Amino acid sequence: MRGSLRTFIGTAMLSLVLSTIVLPEAAYAAKPVGSDKGATTEQSGGSNDTGIYAAARIQYSGSVAKNGGTGNVTSSDVNWTPPPCWYAPYLGAKDFKKKMSKDIESQMSAPGMGGHAGAALSELQRHYEDDYGWTDTPGYKDYNVEKDGEGMFWAAVENPDEPDLLKRSSCTDLPFWVDNGEAPPPQYEEAITPEILAALAYQHMQLPDTEVSLKPEGTTKVNLPTWAWLDKAVFDEVQATASIAAPGFALQATTTAKPVSLKLEPGTDDAETYPASGECTINADGSIGEPYAKGKADRTPPCGITYLRSSGDGTYNLQATITWEIAWTGTGGAGGDLPDGTFGNDQAVTVQEIQAVNR
Fold first, then answer.
1. Helices (H), ranges, 61-181
2. What's the pTM value of the predicted model, to 2 decimals?
């Protein structure tokens, strides 16, 4: 059973020693969303000028936000959030020993280091040097250097886009060893998986700014139906991929957003929507609504709005929100669904007080 000192090491020591080894922010796609949908970044690897093996970083590609920012998708499930932290490959045995032993020695020599903090540091040192462990957390002999190249130590990673500090720093377990080709021990539920990568791809996904086609466009008339539609050519599925790779370990997941409906909100209560719910579903050919054509002036649009009052000297703020169905696939045939996402655009509409017009 884990004792109170073990718990102290797993929490307090993260702020003293382990905070220096938590992985840096993930690597992100550097290219903006474009028609190539191939934004990517270089993979960190090898040794840097300190001799420490660079930590594996998550890379994003496809339709993702610029410079590693959060994407523009809003989850329809208010209770769903991306993972605030996770565990991922960090260093090989020799490099981990070099890094960790140096940090422990530095902390031990700090003025006033004693009491519980000093005892925790001593136990931390014994844990990695002298095979000292707990029931579900075995210790290591000389930092596992005899197995260097056969696996890696994994450590906590904070999601830099998680605003809640407590959630972001909730992965408090000590770095642990994983052999190449093996899964992390089951007690580490936050160890990186394809599903976690899929959720992160969702968090960084950038949906296109799809402007709804309107007829009349920009300026319409009171009591005159305004037709709204989206062509399939500008209304297609979007994909974002997150991947991670380290010696003996690689995972990836692709999250796909498929448009399924368009909701129109006129920007005023003095309007009627078609259909009455304002929810225009996708057609069999992948489009939404129906383009206006000559001869349809007396017809009710399958997707559209009739404004009942003039906008006066201003405009109405028509909001067109697209609902996207989100699913993912990943390494090993894993896959599943994520909550639907939404993304809306605003369009200014001028409504004039004229009862009829020749079209």
1. 93-108, 115-129, 165-168
2. 0.82
